Amino acid sequence: MVGALALGQAHVPHLGELAPFLALAIAGEHLVVFQRQRSGGSVLSFSAAAHVAAVIVIGPTAAALVAASAVVIVDGLRREAFPYVLVNSAMFGGAIWIAGSLFASMVGTGDRIDTRALPALIVLIAVRYLLTSAVFAGGTALATGSRFGYVLRAAVVEEIGSAVGEGSLGVLVAVALSRHDWILLPFLIPLLAALYRSKSTLARLQVETDAALQSVASVIDDRDPTTAAHSARVAQFVAEFARAIRLPRREADRLIASARFHDLGKIAVDVATLSKDGRLTDAELRNIRSHPRLSARLLAPFHFAREMAGFVELHHERYDGRGYFSVQGADVPIEAHVLIVADSFDAMTSVRPYRPALSIEEAALELEDKAGTQFHPEVARVFATIVRGGSVDDELGPQALAELRVQFSSVPSIELPPLSTLLQPRRWSMLFAVVALACLGIDGFPVAVVAGFAVAAAACAVGSIVVAARLRRRTVRAREALERGASPSVALADAGIRAWSAWLRPHDETGAYSPFVADLGASGEAIAEICQWALRRYRYTETVLASGEVLLLSEPGPQLVRLAVLVADRPSHPEREVLRDVVERALDSPPTSEHEPRRGNAVERRQRKRRDGLRAVFDVELDVFEGIRVAAGQLIAERVLADIEERVRLLLRPTDAVVRLGDDRFGISVVVPDEDAAGDLLGRIRSQLALVRVPCRVQAIEPRISVAVGRQATGDPRFAALAEEVERAGQSAHVVG
Q1: Which of 97, 288, 539, 570 pairs as cysteine with 64 (C-beta 3.0–4.6 A)?
Q2: Is 267 within a domain?
Q3: Are 395 and 401 in contact (CB under 8 A)?
Q4: What's the 3-state SS for 36-71?
Q5: What is the pTM of this model?
Q6: In-domain check, residue 73
Q7: Domain range spanning residue 16?
Q8: Distance CA 220, CA 74 (A)
Q9: Are residues 240 and 298 in the same domain?
Q10: Has residue 201 got a pLDDT over 70?
């Protein structure tokens, strides 16, 4: 700019013409700095409005001088580093100079602003915004190692609303100054102040909300001396992981925040339970297992934290699907897998009332040993490399790291409403009506086009009325069916919606849900997934199951009863309203009698089967529970025993019985053709138990297994009593169809 001025290649108006724009630009820069110091967030920039207005009224060179000078004055008085001032000054001055030159080539400087200048104004605002975003993205990409294209796309989309607002304000200011309509300025100033205040308040609220959640997380950590600063350490581990794999900034920030807030739900867990060094009761175990769901419930109401709520909710799952909510590893987001590993590593390397801390090397070996069962293989491998101080690039290689990064979901820059919402005729009716009336007020606008918009508005209005009437009739039919005592699925059928429904109730001992009144028609896999969602989500939930069916799950009603409705296809917007109305109304009067569909009596089937073979009774003693509880905690011990039970069940038939009798003992009752078959089963049980992995510092499982076949199973008092105990426990089990 200095060179152009010195060579006489550019004209700068006198100071009187520059002064109003320079004043507005300085004020804008100062307010941006002031608000960022208060809230930490970006705000609506008046300086951009000054740049745009200056281009329109006094030309691109003068506008560039205004933009560059305002940065130098404001940041110079704040004693910012010279390179920072220089880059900012060049970025704003250069961007508005280039954009202004394009504008001037399309519309002469100082010409009257009318409808013909609209394309040029759009170019002016868009080019300035894209240039400043490109410079910002380039600096961010160089500083963080992120991909330039990704950072640019995120920067452009994230602030596009502010850019349009800033440019529009600049056009309004230019119109007022170019026409000397000074009467507009007193009315523009309150508008600018209101816009500034609204966005600055939003930025401040976001920062204050984050600070409040940070405070709650710190309070939760401080409640228990044994877990003090646990969330902060997990967040630090996650930050190191994000840096090591070069995760983009916004995704990394979201993941680190998720780590900081992952244990918010422990605020509902008694401190005595968290710090207890002895055995936990069933109620205490159930209380601890509920904290991921409660953490998600606390985060879900905040719009900025809804995705984090999903990660936090699953931070106690396992890669093999044996976690708190039994979610399969493939269905757990990669972000949650990172939280799982970081949380487990910090727990292993921290002192607990029931066990000493593991060394870093021992914990790293544990991550590698449980990779593929408890932990995501690649995440565990990267994390073990990081804590050992190794190079992730050397360990995984560039291609594997790139594949790992791709698995992380992008932070949405802009959220579009659902398609079903966009297609509502009422919205289109209002839009067409507004466009028709606006066009009618423009001189010379084709009457045929206005008439077309008016006809479209009328047609959409009629369609909206018809849709509303049909929805009302369907809702009334469903309500009348419920009042007659019909089931929710019958009520929905009366409304023209084919659906399956089930009433769910939690078990007192475990808190897990199971159906007690259900329609026929859903698969066992769907029922299991529905019960899983009921345990995970406390609020009203709409989700798609693995089968492709859509689940609508009510909030807990009286005695924590919940209603699940399953629809084959994704419902339309009107159908969704009917479905939710039926779900909410049916929950007011849930059934009380039990009608549990069964696939026959399991005990009777076993008795019939035994007539065709020999009865074999196995007594399996493990003696591992207490050792695991002391070394790794009771929750880990329970998981190991559950793994053992599941492995044993896979060896048996549905007609056989396996029952856990105490902490370390299992009773098994089967029917075998001969004693050799019993011996073969004994060998397979030993082989499966040898595959069970236990925490380090715990000896491998060495089971003591004794077996009685045929007459010995009934004649030996010990085995006869064991068989009777297995039968009694088996009779109390439900086989739900």
Answers
A1: 97
A2: yes
A3: no
A4: HHHHCCCCCCHHHHHHHHHHHHHCHHHHHHHHHHHH
A5: 0.77
A6: yes
A7: 2-205
A8: 42
A9: yes
A10: yes
